[in-house]
Amino acid sequence: MGFSEFHIANSIKNLLATSFTILSICVFGIGGLIAWPEAVTMMIGSSIGGYAGGRLAKRVKAQYLRVAVIVFGLVLTAVYFVRVFGAGT
């Protein structure tokens, strides 16, 4: 989106993800489609992980964090590609 500082872009991404999550909870909650005990467990884990991850990300150089995000994305792309299309088919 044109941000040169990785941490600022990451913060905006997290803010947008949180906004969409809150909207989804409202929509699906009103529709009665949420398994609340499981959802609460996931909310707690996500909150702890998000807070800890944000604090840890500040300690890592932006260049290393950027490379880690790209490598992680490439690995996930390869894994999903193999799962969908098979290794040799």
Description:
- It is a single chain.
- With 89 residues, the protein is mostly helical.
- The chain has one domain.
- 82% of the residues lie in helices and 0% in strands.
- It is built from three helices and no strands.
- The chain has helices at 6-30, 36-59, 62-85.
- The longest helix has 25 residues, at 6-30.
- The protein is extended.
- The mean pLDDT is 87.
Short summary of the structure?
This protein has 89 residues and is mostly helical.
Write the layout of secondary structure elements.
Elements: H1 6-30, H2 36-59, H3 62-85
Overall structural class, as computed from helix and strand content, comes to mainly alpha
Helix content: over 70%
Q: Biggest sheet: strands, sense, closure?
A: none
Radius of gyration: 17 Å
Q: How many separate structural domains?
A: 1
> What amount of the residues lies in strands?
under 5%
> What is the N-to-C succession of helices and strands?
HHH
Query: Average pLDDT value?
Result: 87
Model regions low in confidence, pLDDT < 50 over at least 5 residues: none
Distance between the termini: 37 Å
How many helices? The count is 3
Shape: extended
Q: What is the number of strand segments?
A: 0
